[in-house]
Amino acid sequence: MESTRQKKVARLIQKELADILLRSTGELAHGKMISVTTVRVSPDLSLAKVYVSIYPSAEAAGVLLNIKNHIPHLRYELGHKVRNQLRIVPELAFFIDDSNDYIENINNLLKE
């Protein structure tokens, strides 16, 4: 069960990371669209699991690897954006959110 504080921090991180990824899409994933779908924060606020949706999903693993290589830079930028709200910027862990692919697969199966 997430506390109210965890939910607020997760929403803040989701909003700011979405903005950061939008601005740096050219260097991280040229020609792809990245959206932050969910952020889960640990109870001690030291770790944030960030779920991203990448469209088109053909090369999602490569884009995720590129994002993971840029985690220190993304965390640094996040720190500058949330320095007045958070004392410590959580560690970031990125994961692919493939729920859209799953929904599309189910829809295709239902059409048949």
Structural overview:
By secondary structure, the protein is of the alpha+beta class. It has a single domain (4-111), classed as K homology (KH) domain (GMP Synthetase, Chain A, domain 3), CATH 3.30.300.20. The chain is 52% helix and 21% strand. It is built from five helices and three strands; from the N terminus they run H-H-E-E-H-H-E-H. A three-stranded mixed beta sheet has the order 1-2-3. Helix 1 crosses helix 4. The protein is globular. The model has no long low-confidence stretch (mean pLDDT 90).
Corresponding CATH superfamily:
K homology (KH) domain
CATH class: Alpha Beta
- Give the terminus-to-terminus CA distance: 39 Å
Number of strands: 3
Q: Based on the structure given, which CATH architecture is correct?
A: 2-Layer Sandwich
Note the beta-strand portion: 15-25%
> What string, H for helix and E for strand, traces the elements in order?
HHEEHHEH
- Order of strands, main sheet, comes to 1-2-3
The value of Rg in angstroms is: 15 Å
The largest sheet is:
3 strands, mixed
Number of helices: 5
| Overall spatial form | globular
Structural class: alpha+beta
Fraction of residues in helix: 40-55%
**Total domain modules:** 1
User: What's the mean pLDDT score?
Assistant: 90
CATH topology: GMP Synthetase, Chain A, domain 3
Q: Low-confidence stretches at least 5 residues in length (pLDDT < 50)? A: none
Indicate the multimeric state: single chain
